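Example record

One chain of 139 residues, shown exactly as stored in the release files.
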Amino acid sequence: MGQSAEDRRGRGRDRPRGPGTASFAAIVRNHPDTVKGAEQLAKEQPSAETFLALSDAYCMAGEYTKCLEAAQKAIQLRPDYSAAYNNAGAAYLSLGRLDEAIEAVKKALQIDPDNKIAHANLKRLGKSELNVGNAIMRK
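Predicted C-alpha cells for this chain:
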C-alpha cells in the first residue's frame, strides 16, 4: 500500500492528541522563534523540504508574500513538489490572487491526485470564486 501525501511530506506522524494540544500547537506555530528557526534551517540546509517548512511558518505567521516566495523556492528546487504548489496556492488565495491560486492548486493535484489538503483547498477556492462572481453581479 502506498504512502499518503501527508506521510510523504512528513506530516501527520507522531502528532500528539488530547486536550490542550490544539492551543499548545497554536502557541508554537505563532511563536516568533518558529519563523526564525525555519529561516535558519533553510539558510543552512537549503532543500525543497526546508523551504516548504519555511513557507508553512510564514503562512502561520500571516506573512503571505514570504510564504509564496518560500514555496516558489521549493518548487525551483523540486519542480514536482505537490505540497509546495499547494502552499503557493494558499498564499495566492490569501493575497487575493484567485486565478493564480486555482492554477497552483490544480498543479499540485496534477502531480499528486491524492493530496487531500490540495483537494480541500480547491473546494475552498471554488467557493471563493463563487463569492467573487456573486459580488460582481450585485454591483
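Notes: The first helix runs from residue 5 to 8.
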